[in-house]
Amino acid sequence: MDQVQHRNDRLGLNLILMRMRLLLRSNEFYLVPLALLIGVGVGAVVTLMSEIAQIAHVLIYGIAVDVRLSANAYVTPHVALMAPAIGGLVLGIMEWSRRRWKIAHAVDPIEANALRGGLLSFRDSAVVSGQTLISNGCGASVGLEAGYTQIGSAAASLLGQFLNLRRNDQRLIVGCGSAAAIAAAFGAPITGAFYACELIVGVYSVASAAPILAASLAGAITAHWLGGAPYSLELLRVSAVGVEQYLALIALALITGAVGIAVMRSSPVFEKIFTRTGMPVWIRPAVGGLLVGCLAIVTPQVLAAGHGAMLLDLHREMAIGVIAVVIALKMTACMISLGSGFRGGLFFASLFVGSLIGKFYAAVLLLWLPTIAVDPQVSMLTGMATLGVAIVGGPLTMAFLVLEMTRNVDVTAVVLAACIVTSIGVRFLFGHSFSTWRLHLSGETIRSANDVGWLRNLTVERTMRTDIGQVPSTATIAACRAQFALGSCRAIVVVNKADEYCGVVMLPELFSGDLDSIADEIQVVELAKYIDVALRPEMNIKTAMKIFDDAEAELLAVIQSEDNRKVIGFLSESFARRRYVEELDKATRGVLGS
Fold it and tell me: Residue ranges per domain, the chain?
């Protein structure tokens, strides 16, 4: 009886899930309640992670409960040295264990949405978020925002996989998780929504607006209700910006763009330094922690993300030399932390350093060119947003962060203009944000979260035909004409005695009237074309089309590999292009919600 009841309960649950899946597939409107649920859950998780990190700072460094670590005036030297080193040792052992057990690296939300249709491992993401929490909690110069977005996106992805969502809906739900995480962290729902659109989903569309905004609002409200956004920024009194200051702030945008490129270029250099020293992998983060601790003795502002230090520096006078020293130490601490193996993000660190660059720039202008001096706070906001664009990406994300901080449209307008200049400059000169640059270093070629996974899955093997005629290279033209009637196929493949590829012969050329008198004497291999050009089954369709263009070919053979040149099929240029256009149209319609 119990078994029957259990079976009926299971059937009832399956029926409910099936109806839910049908509703979610029928209309994107039904994604909104799901996005609200994700937003509430992610907002709670973000608040919990931030509280754990703050408690760790209080217990380890002995600071007051209501004081941020980077805003503390002084840290005990031996604690500053020991805490990051011990935290680094824990992370080093975790990384050594991962390599020993041959566990793959966790996929981040950008890579998941670009290449994997929004599929993320919740277990791997939980480990990454835990490592981020350890890194920030011990004082390493990294932010928690990477952990926030990783666990938020993974939770959303898990829910989407459970509900068996379509590929585009799955990607959208991952974007909802990231939007809720950033909105909860900064108390800025519009910023969270545009972060998801620009960096995680990769596009703006009407279909994605409602779920992403719903998740973002739910995340921000939940975090506020539970105790306040951990990275909340608010600046209510900001001076108006005159037209004459626009050019000065655009120049600042170019400077921060150059700084951002320098930071991203230096990141692999720091990693190579730690790698080439010959230190075991488990000790590298501990050494990095010691170095960060040494910098923290000079100024505690290098510790953690820098949220407290940024709020502190926004409203106080600082000497130009002090600003320059803090900028240099903070950037060095960030690069050491990431290069040695700590986990975390540069989102807030880039905002902090950018604000200091803006403060430095305003002070230098006032000293050297007082006639075009800019308001220090406006300069700090511009530097903050533009360096954020250079390193993180997302010009609209950063502009709306300033809008939600200041409630000032005039200031936001000049910041948006500066962000656009920085974005264009960095994309032209460098081509990557920090996230995609790190993926590029690991062998990936994506430049955004736009869905290109379908393109990689559309391989030559999936589109080729296998019913290709083959003839030996020693066969005469007459023998081939007797075997293949005109119109029976487009081309034949010539192979040698070892069945290796020797070229393609188009059938109209085989039956050319100019060859009638010598058809019994000439071997078919004399007509072969594209002898050194062939496709391989693992190639994606975009690579295949480039080979078609370079060879100016209508049809190419497909061989097993470079070492094994046995012919396994053929692909025509017209069919390859048609399949590419069909898949591109399908992906575009999915993005636009049509």
Answer: 2-226, 244-447, 455-592
Q: CB-based contacts of 274: which residues, under 8 Å, 6+ apart?
A: 284, 287, 288, 339, 340, 341
152 has pLDDT over 90: yes
H or E, element range at 568: strand 567-572
Whether the predicted pLDDT of 175 surpasses 80:
yes
- Span 7-20, pLDDT tens digits: 655 666 666 667 76
Between the alpha carbon of residue 295 and those of residues 20, 339, 482, the distances in Å are: 54, 16, 83
Q: Is the pLDDT of residue 420 over 80?
A: yes
For residue 516, the model assigns a pLDDT of 83
For residue 220, give the 3-state DSSP assignment.
helix
Q: What Cα–Cα distance (Å) separates residue 237 from each residue in 35, 170, 400, 405, 537? A: 34, 41, 17, 10, 62
The predicted-structure confidence for 442-477, as pLDDT tens digits, reads as follows 655 566 555 555 566 678 888 888 888 889 988 998
List alpha helices for 143-229, DSSP H: 145-162, 167-186, 189-195, 206-226
Residues 6 or more apart from 463 whose CB is under 8 A from it? 541, 571, 575, 576, 579
Q: How many whole angstroms separate alpha carbon 53 and alpha carbon 344? A: 13
> How far is the C-alpha of 337 from the C-alpha of 340, rounded, in Å?
6
**Topology given in CATH for the domain delimited by 455-592:** CBS-domain (3.10.580)
Q: Is the dihedral of CA 175, 180, 186, 189 positive or negative?
A: positive
Pairwise CA distance, residues 285 & 270, whole Å: 12
CB 256 within 8 A of CB 387: yes
Q: Is 113 exposed, middle or buried (0-12, 13-18, 19+ CB in 10 A)?
A: buried
* Vertex 400 angle, CA 394 and 403, to 5°: 150
**CATH class entry, domain 244-447:** mainly alpha
Reduced to 3 states, what is the DSSP secondary structure of residue 244? helix
pLDDT score of 347 more than 60 = yes
What's the whole-model pTM score?
0.82
Q: Are strands 469-472 and 567-572 parallel, antiparallel or unpaired?
A: unpaired
